[in-house]
Design brief:
4 copies of one chain form a homotetramer. By secondary structure, chain A is mostly helical. Chain A has a domain at 66-195: Orthogonal Bundle (Tetracycline Repressor, domain 2). Helices cover 72% and strands 0% of the residues of chain A. Chain A has 9 helices and no strands. The termini of chain A are far apart. In chain A, 40% of the residues are buried. Chains in contact: A-B, C-D.
DNA sequence: CATGAATGAGAGTTCATTCAT
DNA sequence: TATGAATGAACTCTCATTCAT
């Protein structure tokens, strides 16, 4: 992963080809995983010649990295746009999870792609989760300042919440079963955050 | 992944060689990931001839599957042996997490290997998490029956707890930083389970 | 032998490369036999890179099958073009054998390649001989209808004639000795067909 | 093919093991062909340990050669024992073919094994056919001397007859179909030898 | 004699990347 | 910019043969 900037097309036709390649790569990586995926599979899906790939991306890793960053941004946007600016801190977390579950349902490839980034592009993988945790932590601190959340909340709480969300997404958005009630999941998580799981006195 | 039983050595010497290969594979997969890992890398680390690999494992996938199952079993054992039979349900979850963090610290390859199983051996990946969630759920139900945990706990609660644990393990056992206080993590998670994160009235 | 169509080159350059590979394979298989032959031997003889082989053929079996079919067609053409449209039925068989012996002398690899097809591509092997027998049978029936050949000729007669031809080809075209008189062979076989080997009354 | 004498067992147990290996090899080579066959396949079928193979045979080629020679001898014996010492020369050829077809029906592997010898052990292959042709030629000469067969019969006639027999064996003994009448084949060939296929004047 | 683990050369095949057109 | 043929390093896997027990 050289970090070098992607090659940017100048013409309109070039932009369209680059877009087609990215869409095709999402499907190819989502279906087959990074290593089983092939450049020729991507160009075949995109309907362009094999050689054209290298007009837009330096390598297989480069297009993968571009996708991870797109998705990471997509998750961020989905969460932030799902959060109402009114409501309590607990409600904001519930809304963020609901928005994430929605996004994950619509983009099941996200799990394959982001998880596989652990092996293919560790830096992107790590920063995706570090950034996500950071945003959660900021919300927790805001909630504390607003007097809604208790003191002492720190990075570990953010990681715990993120872990809950990711696994609930894996189980209920990606591995969804007929009998699941996806709409109830945010409330379940929210109740844990509100009061834990112990019997109330 | 053909599910066919691994070839079992008959002699003592054969058992030693098989063990050497498994240990070497743990290092090779941990360092390089499944796809970058090579059979010759494994046999070189094990100090045996390339061909000897195939005396014990049918393929690269087969030894990987054997490792995933070994690790899955290791996680299970670590958690179950870490749990005191006395104590409350909340304490049992804390102890299970502490044992898991300990195991993960000692076997950092576990994350690479289990995460990569999503791509290499999806059946084992899935059953690892489904089984783990099932065991958590059983503990939650026992806690409810004992009057310690509230009613209505279900599969989703188990997945939420598992997600918390896994991500805390990733962040604090595998990506540990100097400044982290690993020993405090189980209490943090435990407090979330006991009372949530909201300000107490 | 998947029967899948060979990959067809689009450009002129591609056609030349495919041709070079087929010619090289004829020599390689002829010299070493299917199993001793290697793809790298073929590409070396053809003067192309190893990987280029797979641009045109799916596997070692696939190029072998292509050759068997080429040769089978070559034998058919040689025989049919060697047959004068005038002359008696017996003369036609003599001419067909003469043309076959000529073809076999010029393509000694044919025996190795077609015989080895029994093991490598049984379907092609079988249909080569079944088709050849069928064409002989059709000639016999035409000869019978013309009043030149006796009644009751059937598939077994065609196989008997084919066997004679093949073994005479093996002995006198492929394993030719200095002292042999290749040109007399068709007459010898022809006389057997005309009157058998018994003493004439 | 080093021509070195096979290792001869001295004990009774050793003889049995050697015999088991030969029988197993007949099946293995017959089913899979020389190159696909494996020593471990042979020892598995024979029910002996892999290493024991080399107690009795120097190499894979050596056991193959032993089988080819066994079979070659079997064909010779079948033909010679099938021939009545009374009867005409033409009848002797008919009986020889009948005996051969019988032998081939009972030992269908013979074709795979002898044909493959062309590639694996060319010397045995060649001498098998040269010897067979020589025996046919001797019978033809005897028939001529007895005044039953015409003058001028030579090596080529023997090869023609052998080719007929071999292909009739392939088609009607090895590739037999339900509708075939194996018992009629010797008469068909015999009639060709007696009078050819032309219409009798 | 019998056993089965150990060896390693050598094969076929894949595919990211380059290049000539 | 687009095309698709060409390249070759690197991989997994096989198996005849050897060897220690």
């Amino acid at each position: 992963m050289s970090g070098s900037a992607a090659i940017q097309p100048v013409t309109e036709r070039g932009k369209r080809t680059r877009r087609k390649l990215l869409d095709a790569a999402t499907r190819e990586f989502g279906d087959r995983g990074f290593h089983e995926a092939s450049i020729s599979g991507i160009t075949r899906r995109a309907g362009v010649a094999l050689g054209s790939f290298y007009t837009y991306f330096e390598s297989k890793e480069a297009i993968f990295q571009a996708l991870v960053r797109d998705f990471s941004e997509g998750v961020r946007l989905a969460a932030s746009s799902g959060i109402a600016h009114s409501g309590t801190a607990i409600e904001r977390e519930r809304d963020a999870l609901a928005a994430f579950l929605q996004f994950a349902s619509e983009h099941k490839e996200i799990y394959r792609i982001i998880d596989e980034a652990e092996f293919v592009d560790p830096a992107s993988y790590r920063s995706h989760y570090e950034n996500t945790a950071q945003r959660i932590l900021e919300r927790l601190q805001a909630g504390n300042e607003a007097g809604e959340l208790r003191d002492g909340l720190e990075e570990a709480h953010a990681w715990a919440i993120m872990g809950m969300n990711v696994f609930l997404g894996l189980r209920y958005a990606v591995w969804a079963k007929e009998s699941d009630r996806l709409s109830e999941i945010p409330d379940i998580a929210s109740t844990i955050l509100a009061q834990g799981i112990a019997k109330q006195p």
